[in-house]
Amino acid sequence: MKPVKVGICGLGTVGGGTFNVLQRNAVEISRRAGRGIEVAQIAARHLNPACDTGDTPITDDVFDVVNNPEIEVVIELIGGYTVAFDVVMQAIANGKHVVTANKALIAVHGNEIFEAASKQGVVVAFEASVAGGIPIIKALREGLAANQIDWVAGIINGTGNFILTEMRDKGRTFDDVLAEAQMLGYAEADPTFDVEGIDAAHKLTILASIAFGIPLQFDKAYTEGISKLTTADVRYAEAFGYRIKHLGIARRTADGVELRVHPTLIPADRLIANVNGVMNAIMVNGDAVGSTLYYGAGAGAEPTASSVVADVIDVVRALTTDPNNRVPHLAFRAESLSDLAVLPASAIETAYYLRIQAKDRPGVLAKVATILSEREINIESILQKEVEEQAGLVPIIIMTHRVREQKMNDAIEALEALDEVVSPLMRIRVEQLN
Ligand code: HSE
């Protein structure tokens, strides 16, 4: 059988890794796919020194690849929502299958892309868009297909995890570690996507749709970053037996779906609390299987290429299958997607860590406790530290039981209105993940 011709759009870190893996493992790959896979053309503005492209034709116009009649599979590794969107839509219109690592594109435009692909009878595969080399899409969409998925919680941004790990292990400041993450090339082109949780929200949006069979709804994800965390919070969390991780959490509740990315205290003895540096990990809880955990490199040239090439192999296998009998893009058949609502942040339910900086006066603690009890917020534990000499303030750290976020918002407003309390106070959500 003749090899399948593929075209690569973008020869950056992931594009270069994909080319190299396809060349190096060509024999193993063709044994798996049943056919050879040949890179027929590459679109790149710059050559990648990590990649010997030999006599593979190279163009600087991505649409040369998209409109190349020989090419059956377009591998989109450009990133962003603009040119990448046009590339993917044109490839679909041309009847080509698409493999992409582009989380932003899928999270924001995925519904439209999948609809167009289904009409054309082509596949859009996107394993590499979430957690780099971890085959989490495959696990959720196929391996766990028997389950009702109850929740998914993951460390799905390596840069953020690197920052939190360095703050905890070495007491380094946020800004200092971020500068290093940028220098090491972990961060997105715009690092606010990493530290403000936007990158993680893109990935979580995709996971939630596949877990619960709902359309992609990135605009409804609640996103909170890690830039306001201090080393003091990291230390206090440790004192209570917790670690702070930047988690993406998607949970099915009786009222709808929680879709949220925020710093989270989790018990230090959970496996996921011990995932450090740039590594990613995702817990999935299903009604039949219970809790499962997937761990690995969430970024980087070859880990991401591992997922891209696995998708290419899947697409090659699917070339001869009936389009109606392929694994659906979002795990559930398009006509069976549910309209389960994504809940607003005020409706989520969780426990809280509060750090209140208060003036050292009699009765402050009583006022704080009254505000919480009036809103039926149950205190689990409380820690009052010694007065900070320079500011003359006393840190009060409180852990609460689970409560609806709206009640906590009211309580925080009342606490911040107290004369003795410095505003804003620090609130971090707490999850047991059990
Ligand atoms: N900036 C991302 C991260 C790259 O740090 O995880 C992988 O999506």
UniProtKB/TrEMBL annotation:
Record's catalysed reaction(s): L-homoserine + NAD(+) = L-aspartate 4-semialdehyde + NADH + H(+)
CDD domains: ACT_HSDH-Hom (cd04881)
Keyword Nuclease: no
Enzyme nomenclature, EC number: 1.1.1.3
Pathway involvement of the protein, from the record: Amino-acid biosynthesis; L-threonine biosynthesis; L-threonine from L-aspartate: step 3/5; Amino-acid biosynthesis; L-methionine biosynthesis via de novo pathway; L-homoserine from L-aspartate: step 3/3
Ranges for domain ACT: 353-429
PROSITE patterns from the UniProt entry: ACT, HOMOSER_DHGENASE
Pfam families: ACT, Homoserine_dh, NAD_binding_3
UniProt keywords, alphabetically: Amino-acid biosynthesis, Methionine biosynthesis, NADP, Oxidoreductase, Threonine biosynthesis
Enzyme class: oxidoreductase
Superkingdom assignment: Bacteria
UniProt record similarity statement: Belongs to the homoserine dehydrogenase family.
Entry protein name: Homoserine dehydrogenase
Gene it is expressed from: hom
